[in-house]
């Protein structure tokens, strides 16, 4: 199945989804972390680069501290549910995240722990994913990318530092006209299984890198009943391929792949839920998680790795916000790389911002439950079209929840741990002294048990000692932890204002609460049902003890408030009810400028409608919500307009509050605007590219015409803001200037372009590197130019050019300057590249080495003979 925001191509049901208004949600750091959840934000072409958002995962699975990492690519804005657009290559020292961008046909590599981009990597011109994106799957040697528009699968060799090198591509096709959708690699790395979304499936031998068909393409058994495999996973033992079907109900299919080929699939129907494109096995392979893409639910079923059978399923309630803040659910990921995974995450698509469901998993004795967490969903403010997520675990062996040293949430606590891979058993003791067990002694536990719920704990604030043991090589290894017992004054925070049970004073209300001695953060939800958040969801507020909520109803109905306190890694709540403000009159509403728009300058006229029953108006404008730092009108009477001067011109957020006097009370409506950005409205230098190395002592500077600029002025100097080399004076509307006598010593050159805006000069600053007259173009060193290269693979190494900021290598077997054999693209400052596609037929090989100097590519040429 395909989901797109704007354009889409699909074989099954499709929807075009609206972009919805949204608000920002505050986040704060939570003590302790088990890793990061990463999204592919999948930006569509709008001048905004695609990005990955890294959420910190708290011990209880809560997501916080979103950090956006921009890439150079542009996303497809939606597509196939089953195509994973973000994948993780885990290793102990520097895990890598790979992110596909379907519109630009690139794949970004990101160093996960540093959260910085390592590079963007292109494929051949044969590959195109603009319609429905690019799916990814990776192991330690190769990354495979399925391109939706071209119906190709590209192979990349994984390089150090999260790099990739394109090797080649193939053009597979489904038996019924489908294109590659889901992909999975076997643990051995020798088998690639592909679904085509048309009912057919196929496997490939990838032991040599490039996929080679195993000759087993077939229609899945469910095809006869319109069940089309979409997502696919392979069991950790490499025995079974499990498919999630695009279907009107919820079905999965299992194929035996132990022979190295696909066997006929066996169909298993789950009892409820609609659609089942996305599937994921729990880390211990005992639970199969299934996304019910179109009913807003998640299912789980027990999986037997010996027989490959599926049985005993359970399903969640409809997830929070379905059909309200999201319309589809998609990819799955687990918090912990062991057991059931502890917490399950689900990507949610169909609103802006996109959301991520957080689901607590419990499974025992053939019975499972899926319960959405109180902190769910988390909002991805950076994504308008979230379909894919992945998790990088930083978890170390030991107890991770509750956080060691924290205060317990009550007299019963569930302790969760993660053990070393060579452990053969666990044991947990809980007592009032170090190493004691007078509160609890588990006895020996199998490695499949990764938690223990302990009751009867003290509630007097005393120290609780916990010892976790694991058996390694026949000996018990101990790990000690301490906690503070729950006490009466360490419970969740209590609401003080408004008084619980009272009638709210309007549509905007400030809520205040007491501090809990044990809480490290707070969260407030307001809705029209108990526990709901239809009116407001604060997100993690950290240690803040107040929040102001706007947009509350004024119909006299019941408003439900839930105040959460984060205690010992667990969200504990107190619930309250209020009566909404009841008003037959209505306050004035801002009409001009349009709410949410960009202001036109430092002086703006604000207009509003007359409120029903309003006898006066008052307008405040400030730098914070409810503030009046920029303007305070006072009581304007029945006037419906006012002109405000002195507004900021730096492009920041401007907050406007329009008050209406109704029945003796000031009732407010709040609005936000983006301030006029004077600098952004001025000219912007385009040539030479900012930060580039200049091409010589004489350079022509070219800039765009600023939307609000009436004249320009250019200064060039050897210090920031200086004009030692050039001071143009007022140039009028001219948008270029040639500057002579620039230095040629490789020093820094400072350029300031001023634009006359509203009678004032507004500057944009740039730096360049002067041309280095002593620089020498890079030349090829190895293999020695003129020599014979044996075989298809060679590593080319060249000298460094002191003035060059990047290099590029083209190789041809036809003519000098060509790239029919290899095109490296921009290599940055790298001085070597390995090529795997050289001819070995005795022909001449033409190599062109480019150096990027002074904003232009200059080249040196070498020739070789290809050995037989």
Descriptive notes:
This protein is mainly beta and 868 residues long. 0% of the residues lie in helices and 46% in strands. The strands form 18 sheets. Strands 14, 15, 16, 17 and 18 form a 5-stranded antiparallel sheet that branches. Strands 27, 28, 29, 30 and 31 form a 5-stranded antiparallel sheet that branches. A hairpin with a 2-residue loop joins strand 45 (558-567) and strand 46. The chain is globular.
Strand content: over 45%
Which regions are unreliable across 5 or more consecutive residues at pLDDT < 50?
1-31
Based on the structure, what is the oligomeric state of the protein chains? single chain
**Helix content, binned percent:** under 10%
Report the structural category: mainly beta
What count of helical segments does DSSP give? 0
Q: What gap, in angstroms, lies between the N and C termini? A: 49 Å
Radius of gyration: 31 Å
**Number of DSSP-assigned strands:** 68
């Amino acid at each position: 199945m395909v989901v797109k925001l704007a354009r889409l191509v699909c074989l099954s049901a499709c929807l075009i989804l609206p972009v919805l208004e949204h608000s920002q949600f505050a986040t704060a750091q939570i003590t302790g972390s088990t890793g990061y959840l990463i999204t592919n934000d999948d930006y569509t072409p709008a001048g905004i680069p695609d990005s990955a958002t890294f959420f910190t995962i708290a011990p209880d699975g809560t997501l916080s501290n979103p950090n956006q990492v921009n890439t150079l690519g542009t996303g497809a804005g939606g597509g196939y549910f089953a195509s994973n657009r973000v994948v993780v290559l885990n290793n102990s020292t520097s895990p890598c995240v790979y992110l596909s961008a379907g519109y630009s046909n690139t794949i970004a590599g990101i160093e996960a722990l540093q959260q910085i981009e390592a590079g963007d990597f292109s494929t051949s011109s044969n590959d195109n994913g603009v319609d429905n994106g690019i799916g990814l799957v990776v192991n330690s040697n190769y990354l495979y990318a399925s391109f939706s528009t071209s119906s190709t699968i590209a192979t990349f060799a994984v390089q150090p530092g999260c790099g990739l090198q394109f090797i080649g591509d193939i053009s597979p096709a489904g038996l019924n006209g489908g294109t590659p959708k889901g992909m999975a690699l076997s643990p051995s790395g020798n088998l690639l299984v592909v679904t085509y979304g048309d009912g057919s499936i196929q496997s490939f031998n990838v032991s040599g890198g490039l996929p080679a068909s195993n000759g087993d393409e077939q229609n899945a058994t469910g095809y006869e009943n319109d069940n089309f495999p979409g997502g696919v996973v392979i069991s950790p033992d490499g025995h079974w391929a499990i498919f999630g079907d695009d279907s009107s109900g919820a079905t999965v299919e299992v194929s035996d792949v132990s022979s190295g080929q696909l066997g006929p699939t066996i169909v298993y129907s789950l009892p409820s839920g609609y659609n089942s494109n996305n599937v994921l096995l729990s880390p211990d392979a005992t639970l199969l998680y299934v996304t019910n893409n179109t009913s807003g639910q998640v299912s789980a079923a027990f999986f037997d790795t010996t027989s490959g059978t599926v049985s005993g399923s359970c399903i969640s309630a409809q997830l929070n916000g379905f059909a309200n803040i999201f319309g589809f659910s998609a990819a799955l990921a687990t918090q912990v790389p062991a057991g059931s995974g502890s917490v399950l995450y689900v990507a949610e698509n169909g609103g802006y911002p996109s959301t991520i469901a957080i689901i607590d998993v419990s499974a025992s004795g053939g019975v499972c439950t899926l319960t959405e967490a109180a902190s769910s969903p988390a909002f991805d403010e950076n994504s308008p079209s979230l379909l894919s997520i992945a998790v990088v675990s930083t978890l170390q062996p030991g107890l991770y929840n509750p956080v060691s040293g924290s205060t317990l949430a009550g007299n019963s606590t569930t302790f969760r741990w993660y053990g070393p891979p060579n452990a053969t058993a666990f044991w947990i003791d809980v007592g009032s002294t170090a190493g004691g067990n007078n509160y609890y002694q588990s006895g020996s536990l199998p490695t499949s048990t990764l938690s223990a719920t302990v009751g009867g704990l003290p509630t007097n604030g005393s120290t609780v000692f916990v010892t976790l043991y694991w058996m390694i090589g026949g000996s018990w290894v101990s790990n000690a932890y301490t906690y503070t017992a729950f006490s009466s004054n360490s419970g969740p925070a209590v609401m003080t204002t408004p008084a619980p049970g009272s009638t709210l004073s309007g549509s905007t209300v400030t809520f205040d609460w007491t501090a809990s001695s044990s809480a490290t953060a707070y969260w407030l939800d307001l809705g029209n049902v108990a526990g709901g958040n239809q009116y407001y969801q604060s997100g993690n507020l950290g240690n803040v003890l107040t929040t102001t909520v706007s947009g509350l109803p004024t119909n006299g109905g019941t408003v439900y408030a839930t105040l959460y306190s984060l205690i010992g890694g667990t969200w504990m709540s107190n619930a309250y009810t209020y009566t909404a403000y009841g008003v037959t009159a209505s306050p004035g509403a801002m009409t001009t400028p349009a709410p949410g728009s960009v202001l036109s300058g430092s002086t703006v006229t604000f207009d509003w409608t007359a409120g029903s029953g309003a006898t006066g108006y008052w307008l405040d404008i400030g730098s914070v919500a409810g503030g009046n730092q920029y303007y305070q009108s006072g009581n304007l009477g029945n006037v419906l307009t006012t002109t405000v001067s002195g507004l900021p011109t730096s492009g920041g957020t401007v907050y406007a509050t329009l008050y209406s006097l109704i029945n003796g009370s000031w009732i407010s409506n709040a609005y936000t605007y983006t301030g006029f950005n004077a600098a952004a409205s001025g000219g912007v230098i385009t040539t030479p590219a900012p930060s580039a190395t200049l091409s010589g002592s004489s350079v022509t500077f070219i800039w765009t015409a600023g939307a609000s600029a009436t004249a320009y002025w250019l200064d060039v100097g050897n210090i920031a803001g200086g004009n030692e080399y050039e001071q143009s004076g007022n140039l009028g509307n001219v948008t270029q200037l040639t500057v002579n006598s620039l230095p040629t010593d490789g020093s820094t050159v400072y350029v300031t372009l001023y634009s006359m805006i509203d009678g004032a000069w507004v500057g944009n600053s740039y730096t360049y590197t002067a041309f280095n007259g002593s620089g020498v173009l890079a030349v090829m060193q190895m293999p020695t130019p003129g020599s014979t290269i044996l075989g298809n693979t060679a590593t080319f190494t060249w000298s460094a050019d002191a003035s060059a900021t990047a290099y590029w290598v083209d190789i041809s077997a036809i003519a000098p300057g060509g790239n029919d054999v290899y095109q490296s693209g921009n290599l940055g400052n790298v001085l070597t590249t390995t090529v795997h596609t050289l001819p070995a037929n005795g022909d001449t090989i033409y190599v062109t080495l480019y150096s990027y100097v002074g904003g232009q590519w200059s080249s040196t040429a070498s020739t070789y003979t290809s050995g037989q």
